[in-house]
Amino acid sequence: MSLLDIQDLTIEAKQGQGRQAIVDRVSFAVPEQNIVALVGGSGSGKTTTGLAVMRLLSPGLNIVSGRIYFEGNDVVAMPEGELRRYRGKQMAMVFQEPLYAFNPVFRVGCQIEEVLQFHTDLTKGQRQQRVDALLRQVEIKDPGRVARSYPYQLSGGLRQRAMLAQAIAANPKLVIADEPTSNLDVTVQARILTLFKKLRDDLKLTVLIITHDLGLVRSLADQVVVLSSGRVVEEGPAGEVLQHPRHVYTQQLLEAAK
Asked: Other CB atoms closer than 10 Å to residue 21's CB: what's the count?
């Protein structure tokens, strides 16, 4: 069963006096408890597609047609008030650069606690205990120090783990991760990938990974969807697509990754 089902999604951007399709009739499904990789080069529309799932598109980008079904409910048609209850509680985002995604003037623990304050009935003391548990769950060995820190005081790997803790705080069913390892060294990348798998298994998460890194796809994803110029050009089980790519664009991505 698919937790997320995107059907004929088209997103346009204002360009001069006209508009241009950034995402063009994109359709694919994300099965429950799978890790699905949305793959493509710069400008392929993959990040825009991911942001559209939570209706986080920047001004100037508009969904002009198509449907985004989450558990059968159309996110595109959802009133903003109802959508706010979905964000964080049912679906969450791990952004590419946590240094800029976190608010720089608040401590990391306070920002994780804010999710719990909005989406749960936990008391202040219970929320603080939950923040500590979440940071431990993402394998942070000194959760108290990290919770008291401002984002700029943490390494890239710690920021990424803290953002993942924030994403899973309210037990969402879907986590969307935009290039979650792109700014990390190889050793930290491997740990983050292992952590994603563990959280998927432990929490029964469904994960949509947005990436250009086919090495990441090979080691992490169950399914892969390849985007080129805003269109899906190939999709299927990750092993099959990577070993026997049918589309020339997928072949070029694989060749470039060697």
From this structure: 16
Reported as a single tens digit per residue, the pLDDT across 208-252 is 999 988 878 888 899 999 999 999 999 999 999 999 999 999 999
d(CA 45, CA 138): 29
| CB proximity list for 202: less than 8 A, separation 6 or greater | none
Residues 113 and 131 sit within 8 Å (Cβ to Cβ): yes
| Token pair for 229 | 């110029």
* CB count in 10 Å sphere of residue 18: 7
**Which residues are bridge partners to 103 per DSSP?**
none
pTM above 0.85, yes or no: yes
Domains of the chain: 2-90+173-257 (3.40.50.300), 98-171 (no CATH)
Distance of CA 128 to the CA centre of its chain: 25
Query: Residue 32 is inside which H or E element, if any?
Result: none
Instruction: Compute the C-alpha angle 71/77/83, nearest 5°.
Output: 65
d(CA 12, CA 211): 21
